[in-house]
Amino acid sequence: MVLTDAQKRANEKWHKNHRERANYIAMRSSARSFIRKKSTLDDLQELQDIIENRRKELVEP
Predict the structure, then answer these.
(1) Non-local CB neighbours of 14 within 8 Å, separated by 6+ positions
(2) Does the predicted model carry a pTM greater than 0.85?
(3) What is the rounded distance in angstroms from the CA atom of residue 9 to the CA atom of residue 45?
(4) 5-17 vs 19-37: helix axis angle to the nearest 10?
(5) From residue 61, how far is each of 16, 21, 49 by CA, in Å?
(6) Distance in angstroms (rounded) separating the CA atoms of residues 32 and 9
(7) CB-based contacts of 6: which residues, under 8 Å, 6+ apart?
(8) Backbone phi, then psi, for 40, in 5-degree steps?
(9) How confident is residue 19, by pLDDT bands cut at 50, 70 and 90?
(10) What is the domain extent for residue 32?
(11) Per-residue pLDDT tens for 29-47?
(12) Per the structure, how many domains does the chain have?
């Protein structure tokens, strides 16, 4: 897909103004890609433990 110059500028402007959200989306994408394509059973077990701990943190006030 070819982007026009206007669309490229709009994308750059959005990334500049929403840097934190753009980083969040990129990190989430990397995590999902790793889990789907590269993870081992040991990796998945470790990630599951981390996720369980994180859920507890988010639920507790």
Answers:
(1) 22
(2) no
(3) 42
(4) 100
(5) 33, 24, 20
(6) 28
(7) none
(8) -100, 175
(9) very high
(10) 5-59
(11) 999 999 999 999 999 999 9
(12) 1
